[in-house]
């Protein structure tokens, strides 16, 4: 009897210690600052969205300012509907600029006022357009009516496909539209500035966005690219921002597009080949609801990226040109909130943050594996004006308040120089993640590290596909080869108590009409916070710096070391 009581007490004590993190084996992280892997390219410094008219609205400008400030390099911004006809009214999955109309005789009339408002907003902040030549102006569309859609969350996605998705009735006018647009940009911003931009034709021609044939799309591309190059021969243009890159049909499209640009007769010029200065494709994950709990899945997203890299590496002409993941996200529809799509409930809290950290680290691994020119991965998330607070859109901010995910990019902004060797005994291997994501009993406690001349940064995350809370787990970080005996250590953190406006909002009672004082508090909570304030730390005689801490599930830490 006594033995049974003792065993019961010991078991209860063990459970208590586990739940409080005391009985867990620490995740061991080793960073070697002298073992350089590759440049720490700021591939994360790219963002995009469907609704171009949000750009110059109040919260849009505020967020773009914050995005520009978090990056040490110019941020690229990609948006749809820059040539769509309309009055400039902003709406979900809709935008317009009325850049092109025709007079009574059918002559082109160009109006760059709204397009300029968009690009002015970027350029004034030191940002760069990833300028999308699309979609089809109503006056040029072969099926001009119906044209304006009024899509709402929960409605069929196909409801957005109207006259803007069709081929032009006159390809020469289409090419001249591209020519005049680029020519106008040179006059407004200068040749050197426009040379630093990327240009692309259309979006996801293998999906809903294109109602023509494959050859009609190649013709569309040829005329647009010819127009761009006539205006600025040094402009960088490419495509095709294919959807579902790893699918068989998408691979066929991508290979056919590359071969067309390399060896086919150009529809616009009659010569062989078409300009291809960059190659872009899309990559999406696939979350779902399992027994009422969101379960993420990064495998499809990483397989899409691997496929795009592999295709580019196949051709000598595309192996070294910039490769851009034109949309790189946990799933497909930014404007589908969690009320209509419950599997999107990950977006407000720290799960989105840890997912971003874990996937970007694997993108770097894929770059190393395929040895290509990985230039950027566009996070297709921005903000939605005049929408409910924390509605669950895939956005970086809500009503001018930053969400936790934006702070991951603030962390990335503090990393630079070169990526260095960093290993964790709790980080899932790339192959496992590509095969089955992170579904094991243990979470993925992973690491990404960088070093430049006078500082280093170590990002550590605790990620799992299942959106469940768990006890904070101990982490032991050892940084080797520290080139100074005295450093300043700053520990930044994203978790339920740090860098998290969502948790603060919930504690307020989830107000849909917060007071001015509450908004100020939420804005402050939305900034990147320190877990441990900056402090001077002595480095051991062996040039090693050890840092121990506990990291909650779905939390992210960044150790910044300055000397």
From TrEMBL:
Active-site residues (renumbered): 204 (proton donor)
Biological process terms in GO annotation: carbohydrate metabolic process
Domain of life: Bacteria
Signal peptide boundaries: 1-22
UniProt domain Glycosyl hydrolases family 39 N-terminal catalytic: residue ranges: 28-525
TM region positions: none
Keywords, ordered alphabetically: Glycosidase, Hydrolase, Signal
Alphabetized InterPro entries for the sequence: GH, GH39_cat, Glyco_hydro_39, Glycosyl_Hydrolase_39
SUPFAM superfamilies xrefs: (Trans)glycosidases, Glycosyl hydrolase domain
UniProt GO molecular function: hydrolase activity, hydrolyzing O-glycosyl compounds
Family statement: Belongs to the glycosyl hydrolase 39 family.
Name of the protein in question: Beta-xylosidase
Provenance organism: Mucilaginibacter aquatilis
């Amino acid at each position: 009897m006594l033995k049974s009581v003792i065993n019961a007490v010991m078991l209860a004590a063990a459970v208590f210690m586990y739940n409080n993190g005391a009985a867990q084996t620490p995740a061991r992280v080793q960073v070697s600052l002298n073992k350089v892997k590759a440049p720490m390219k700021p591939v994360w410094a790219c963002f995009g969205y469907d609704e171009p008219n949000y750009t110059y609205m109040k919260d849009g400008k505020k967020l773009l300012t914050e995005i520009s400030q978090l990056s040490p390099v110019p941020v690229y911004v990609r948006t749809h509907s820059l040539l769509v006809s309309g009055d400039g009214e902003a709406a979900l999955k809709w935008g317009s600029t009325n850049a092109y109309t025709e007079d009574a005789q059918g002559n082109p009339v160009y109006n760059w006022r709204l397009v300029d408002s968009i690009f002015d907003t970027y350029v004034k902040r030191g940002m760069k357009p990833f300028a999308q030549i699309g979609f089809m102006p109503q006056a040029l569309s072969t099926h001009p009516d119906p044209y304006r859609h009024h899509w709402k969350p929960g409605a069929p996605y196909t409801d957005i496909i109207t006259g803007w998705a069709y081929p032009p009735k006159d390809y020469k006018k289409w090419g001249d539209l591209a020519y005049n647009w680029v020519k106008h940009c040179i006059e407004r911003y200068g040749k050197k500035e426009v040379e630093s931009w990327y240009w692309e034709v259309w979006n996801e021609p293998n999906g809903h966005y294109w109602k023509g044939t494959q050859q009609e799309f190649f013709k569309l591309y040829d005329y647009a690219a010819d127009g761009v190059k006539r205006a600025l021969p040094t402009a960088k243009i490419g495509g095709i921002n294919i959807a579902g890159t790893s699918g068989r049909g998408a691979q066929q499209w991508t290979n056919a597009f590359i071969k067309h640009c390399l060896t086919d007769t150009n529809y616009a010029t009659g010569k062989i080949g078409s300009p291809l200065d960059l190659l872009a494709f899309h990559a999406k994950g696939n979350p779902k609801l399992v027994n009422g709990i969101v379960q993420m899945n990064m495998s499809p997203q990483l397989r899409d990226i691997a496929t795009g890299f592999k295709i580019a590496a196949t051709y000598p002409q595309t192996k070294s040109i910039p490769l851009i993941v034109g949309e790189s996200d946990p799933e497909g529809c930014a404007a589908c909130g969690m009320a209509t799509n419950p599997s999107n409930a990950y977006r407000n809290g720290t799960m989105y943050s840890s997912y971003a950290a874990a996937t970007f680290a694997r993108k770097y691994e894929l770059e190393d594996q395929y040895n290509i020119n990985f230039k950027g991965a566009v996070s297709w998330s921005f903000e939605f004006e005049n929408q409910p607070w924390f509605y669950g859109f895939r956005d970086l901010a809500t009503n001018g308040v930053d969400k936790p995910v934006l702070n991951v990019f603030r962390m990335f902004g503090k990393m630079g120089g070169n990526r260095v060797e960093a290993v964790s005994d709790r980080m899932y291997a790339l192959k496992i993640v590509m095969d089955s994501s992170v579904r094991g009993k243990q979470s993925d406690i992973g690491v990404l590290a960088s070093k430049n001349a006078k500082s280093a940064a170590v990002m550590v995350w605790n990620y799992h596909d299942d959106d469940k809370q768990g006890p904070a787990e101990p982490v032991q970080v050892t940084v080797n080869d520290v080139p100074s005996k005295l450093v300043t250590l700053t520990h930044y953190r994203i978790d339920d108590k740090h860098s998290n406006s969502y948790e603060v909002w919930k504690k307020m009672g989830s107000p849909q009409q917060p007071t001015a004082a509450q908004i100020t508090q939420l804005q402050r909570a939305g900034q990147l916070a320190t877990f441990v304030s900056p402090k001077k730390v002595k480095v051991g005689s062996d040039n090693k710096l050890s840092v121990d801490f506990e990291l909650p599930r779905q939390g992210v830490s960044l150790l910044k070391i300055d000397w």
